[in-house]
Amino acid sequence: MSPVLAIIATTSADLPNAQELSSQLNLPCLGVASPSEINEVPQVLACGEQLQLCATGRKAPGPVSVDFVGGALAHRRKYGGGKAQPVAKAVGLRPGFYPRVLDATAGLGRDAFVLATLGCEVKMLERNPVVRLLLKDGLRRLQEAATADPELAAIAGLLSLADDIAPAADWLAQQAEESWPVVYLDPMFPPRGKSAKVKKEMVAFHHLVGEDLDADDLLEPALRACYYRTVVKRPKVAPYLADKKPMLSFEGKSGRFDIYTKHGVPG
Ligand SMILES: C[S@@+](CC[C@H](N)C(=O)[O-])C[C@H]1O[C@@H](n2cnc3c(N)ncnc32)[C@H](O)[C@@H]1O
């Protein structure tokens, strides 16, 4: 079967990095190129100043990368509504209570980052090796920017990625019972209908990650590992995870938050 992903370098100086990733991921390296020139594969991982997942071909949408310093996340950090944001309400954040969060399906780390900007310590789990590399690259650039910016330094100190690449259900099963205040789940869900259309630049990400068909298996281990809340982010049209009715649900801008509460009282 031919690969659906290959590695390219954006400049000749990036070629050694691209070659290293190619052997690490066991994917072909197509040398120094631009994604628009590639037609052997539908998407590439481009090594340059940032690591980017790019659809290939002349009409390809923009790249996907993890940028915790600039772009949309910087805008959200500065003007995004702070503690009034639905995700903050979902994890139960309130003055004096900033729960530690295990984000078991980190993806591009956007929700994790937002929670860290609000003062929560967040550990991310991600099983897809390419998405993990994008996250690591984003964290590396966050650490670099943090050296000159105390606000970013505080956020960087709260955000981490687990070394383990084990699927989250196994990872959660290894945690002591009720050892996390909050477990946060946001597995992929197949887009449905016009309203749920995937943003153009996210097509490559969806192509890469697929549909997380085992998502239901996450709920029980998450409930076991948390003592305060398990939060499940879902598209508005999606059924409950594992068909289990939450204690509480509310709609955010981009989806629904289903909340499974436990007996633990925040300290
Ligand atoms: C919809 S994305 C999460 C988006 C994320 N909340 C954000 O703000 O960027 C879902 C991610 O969860 C990961 N994932 C799904 N099931 C997983 C599992 N069982 N263990 C680890 N990662 C998982 C997928 O690989 C994918 O990257």
From TrEMBL:
One of its GO terms (biological process) is methylation. It catalyses: guanosine(1516) in 16S rRNA + S-adenosyl-L-methionine = N(2)-methylguanosine(1516) in 16S rRNA + S-adenosyl-L-homocysteine + H(+). Pfam families: SAM_MT. GO terms for molecular function: methyltransferase activity. It is found in: Cytoplasm. It comes from the Bacteria. The keyword Amino-acid biosynthesis does not apply. InterPro entries: 16SrRNA_methylTrfase_J, SAM-dependent_MTases_sf. Its main location: cytoplasm. Its EC number is 2.1.1.242. The keyword Transferase applies. Belongs to the methyltransferase superfamily. RsmJ family. HAMAP family: 16SrRNA_methyltr_J. Specifically methylates the guanosine in position 1516 of 16S rRNA. This is Ribosomal RNA small subunit methyltransferase J. The gene is rsmJ.
